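Design review, sub-item: ligand-bound model
Attendees: FS, YL, KQ
YL presented the inputs for the uridine-5'-diphosphate complex:
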Amino acid sequence: MILVMGGAGYIGSHTVKHLLDNGYEVVVADNLIYGHREAVDPRAKFELADLADKVSLRNVFGKYSIDAVIHFAAFAYVGESVQNPQKYYHNNVIGTSNLLDVMLEYGVKKIVFSSTCATYGEPLYTPIDEKHPQNPINPYGRTKLMIEQMFADYETAYGLQHIALRYFNAAGCAADGSIGESHTPETHLIPLVLKAISGERQDIKVFGTDYDTPDGTCIRDYIHVEDLALAHRLAVEKLGSYNGCINLGTGVGTSVKEIIVAAEHVSGKKCPTEYAPRRAGDPARLFADNTKAKEILGWQPKYTNIKDIIQTAWNWELNRKY
Ligand code: UDP
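KQ shared the predicted structure:
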């Protein structure tokens, strides 16, 4: 059985569904602070547990026969991590240390982890490969880097088998409309653009139009959440024969203005747009070299056209369930 920590969240819930669709047995553990109970596929077992509470973790490991853990449970607001780093070091770093303690107590030595391109910091070159130096520029990115480093030490000392997947910008929703993206507060570009189009928000503010990019707005690598889910399954299957970090992106960069144009095309409506100053800490361009994911995991993203990704997010926006 696979334990998905944080399986009620955005990427976690899509991975749970994908695992179940591919014949895996899954138990989800989540504290439901940011996760949604409705996002957890009814075919999965569910346990309320918190990384801060080892008793709740032991309850899960004692009750089920866990072969491997996929660990999504983290706080992930960059701005908040600057204002309240305690919250991030406690939950993300100490919480993961607790999880590893309990895994080792129960003899579970396989983990796939949600890492992030934020561990690279300001890029020295693009596309970013896994050899790019890691100099995160905010506490969120630093917590994720520390966890990657813990894994390497636990591998040496305790034989931990680990793959950290460094996501670029997760986007889109399940193609069947059953689950999707729902954050409170929402800070991500694509859902905010779609809410501006639907009228749920007044407008979208474009953070900076004077970057050194062709249209002056920031370039990111938007990767469909179902392609991320697929990569997690492939990573679980690879545990034991490979330890380390793997980028997950499409390798294609899309600017903020291009996202808005694509969303207008998909929805057939105008997006009320305001130009605003740059947001602190936003690099001009981030996109992945995904060669390693293709070679090691045999992974290939199914969604390579940004309009197709936005279409799934728009379908969800029109008919959200939570
Ligand atoms: N962005 C924007 N307006 C918003 C939210 C985001 O212009 O209201 C831009 C942001 O500056 C970045 C891109 O959209 O260049 C993606 O931001 P998001 O927060 O979705 O992801 P991040 O790249 O920060 O992880």
